[in-house]
Inverse folding.
């Protein structure tokens, strides 16, 4: 079956990232610092951490998705565009329902969890790109990844290697490898989306497109 090229999406991702490397590195650094602060507070007020994590995870996921989708389209995301509460509820559902299904899949002898993880891997990008609610985005991700799961798995393994190299490069390399990984997944999503045919209709209650 026709699918995307791993080397091509990673190469395209690097080309996009290096055009505005400092901006993307700064975004990753800020998001990391936020996570670090939350972790520090957790040692003092564990319950506070739970609440903040539930609230912050969808917002961070939205920021990464918007950064990647804008970047592969030749646009540079503005800082004020990273936080978008209009996507909070659909992203909240997308993040936690996907995580729950994947967890249950892993409980069922691991393989179902891997299949679910690969099939739902583009859910967060679809929430932003197609303005769908969380469940509709999950269905769309499952639809477009049919026949591509092995290639997606190979891409994820390649990106793990990329991030390990970033980690070895005095950790600072992660400020480059993380954006490259996000952009590579966005490029793969675009390619698979085009190959899959007509997209699912947008949700009637979804906001107008904003990247």
């Amino acid at each position: 079956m026709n699918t995307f090229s791993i080397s091509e999406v990673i190469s395209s991702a690097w080309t996009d990232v290096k055009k505005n490397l400092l901006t993307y590195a700064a975004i990753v650094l800020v998001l990391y610092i936020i996570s670090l602060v939350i972790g520090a507070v957790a040692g003092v007020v564990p319950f506070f951490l739970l609440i903040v994590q539930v609230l912050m995870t969808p917002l961070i996921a939205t920021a990464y998705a918007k950064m990647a989708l804008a970047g592969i389209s030749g646009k540079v995301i503005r800082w004020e565009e990273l936080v978008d509460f209009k996507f909070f509820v659909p992203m909240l559902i997308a993040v936690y329902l996907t995580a729950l299904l994947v967890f249950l899949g892993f409980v069922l002898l691991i393989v179902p969890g891997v299949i679910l993880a690969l099939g739902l891997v583009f859910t967060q990008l679809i929430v932003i790109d197609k303005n769908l609610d969380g469940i509709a985005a999950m269905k769309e991700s499952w639809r477009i990844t049919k026949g591509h799961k092995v290639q997606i798995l190979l891409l994820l393994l390649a990106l793990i290697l990329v991030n390990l190299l970033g980690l070895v490069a005095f950790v600072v390399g992660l400020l480059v490898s993380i954006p490259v990984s996000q952009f590579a997944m966005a490029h793969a999503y675009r390619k698979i989306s085009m190959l899959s045919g007509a997209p699912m209709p947008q949700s009637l209650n979804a906001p107008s497109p904003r990247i």
